[in-house]
What we know:
Largest sheet: 7 strands, mixed
Oligomer: single chain
Strand content: 15-25%
Helix content: 25-40%
Bound molecules: flavin-adenine dinucleotide
Amino acid sequence: MAAESGRAALEAIEQLKIRNDPIALFLVDQRMPAMSGVEFLESALRLYPDAKRALLTAYADTDAAIRAINSARIDHYLMKPWDPPEERLYGVVDDLLDDWQAAFRPPFEGIRIVGHRWSPQSSEVRDFLARNLIPYQWLNVETEESASQLMAACKTDAGQLPLVIFPDGTHLTCPTPNRVAQQLGLKTRAELPFYDLIVLGGGPAGLAAAVYGAADGLKTLLVEREAPGGQAGRSSRIENYLGFPSGLSGTDLARRAVIQAKRFGAEIVAPQEVTKVRVEGPSRVVTLADGSEIGAHTLLIATGIAFRKIEAPGVEELNGAGVYYYAPMTEALSYRDMDIFIVGGANSAGQAAIYFSRYANSITMLVRGASLSSGMSQYLEDQIKATKNIVVRLNSVVAAVKGSARCEAITIRNISSGQEETVTACALFVYAGAVPHTSWLPEIVERDPQGYVLSGAHLMRDGKRPRDWTPNRDPFYLETSVPGIFVAGDVRHRSAKGVTSGVGEGAMAVKLIHQYLSQT
Ligand SMILES: Cc1cc2nc3c(=O)[nH]c(=O)nc-3n(C[C@H](O)[C@H](O)[C@H](O)COP(=O)(O)OP(=O)(O)OC[C@H]3O[C@@H](n4cnc5c(N)ncnc54)[C@H](O)[C@@H]3O)c2cc1C
């Protein structure tokens, strides 16, 4: 690249820095308008410390050039004129480029996130990208020199973090996941106004329905609030899924299912939330968070369950700053050699403990119950017992989390003795179960007192069909109190809960939907 002045060149290299383009060599004239070559190199060095530097000087500038060997750390100075170039210029440039290339490591080409390690906003964006399988480079502003260089190049101050820089050089400060999704061009709008089937939720149940619905020729749309995979997307290793004897990670399962669903022609919209459902004659209409509406012959509610929060002083304040609910497994790398705590005694907590034990110094599991066996599969319990850096504290709950900007200590209460103990903790990972989040559904979709959606025989009272039921048949096994609205997976009343049953119900729902469509 050529520039007419030092200032123009500095502006250009700022843009190159933001795009993460490497610079091999600065070839700079000492005599330039407004800024000397040495002054330019001193500034350029801050952004590109590894670029080679050659200064072009006149005889009268020799002293300046020699002084610049220290201040601008120039590698070479060339005396003007450099005629013939074959003799006096090209050889020098070749040597400098060879040196540079020998030490050069190609830069990361994806998204870069600059932020504070303990900032909830940074965690939210990282979590979002990880769950959507979008690679990114994390640059901790406290430890990475290139983080401050990028902040300077993007003219961003510490109060505007996280800074998210995209491969084309555009950047966002303090963005929401939705804003990042838009910038990435993720699909957040449906293509058609009307479908045969709209699947609400992209966990295992919803993904299975999308695969089998599209494969069976239904015009199928799946709407997912966060990222396809659902709870399973947070699982490091699902060991009990048919056909995968050595287990597979939830992200892998989700990735495969998304590819499969799209191959069959299903449309997936994410991140996008369904906020309302209504019935209009034979159509079922969903309203999305952006206000748009889409209609369908049938709906499948597969919205799963949401994490149960724990209530103790400090937990809410430090959520995302050392306290995490069902953190994605990528978070484990950030806790290498540290002491962490896990709340929960079911399989998800057990899997997390085993996974974290590869990185953290120690893991303490806080389990409310008197034994692990009541909530956990035997194979996991055995693995936990055999893992040296995992300690299990039974009858234990979190009484408080302490720390000014991040989790620094937690108080543990023994519920049998009532005794409390405060211990140093770098992080608290909560796997305390979940509840269905179905209050947004209309009244006509009947639920049990906990909010789980009723279907099939569970809707029948003394042999009678639901109140406003019109078809001349009983509700199908996975059909709700509204004909044509089906339910599958964890959100269903009395469902078996788990990946396999979710997938099974998603597939079965499609068969029942075909029966419904053939009768209407
Ligand atoms: C860490 C962890 C480990 C686990 N390990 C195992 C295991 O080894 N084996 C096993 O069998 N099970 C395991 N489970 C349980 C298993 O993941 C769940 O039973 C399964 O994911 C349920 O599937 P689902 O499709 O019914 O619901 P979910 O997986 O909960 O998916 C529901 C989806 O709906 C979306 N959604 C919710 N509301 C809306 C809305 N309004 N609009 C749009 N989208 C919405 C959510 O974002 C979510 O993606 C684990 C769970 C966790 C958290």
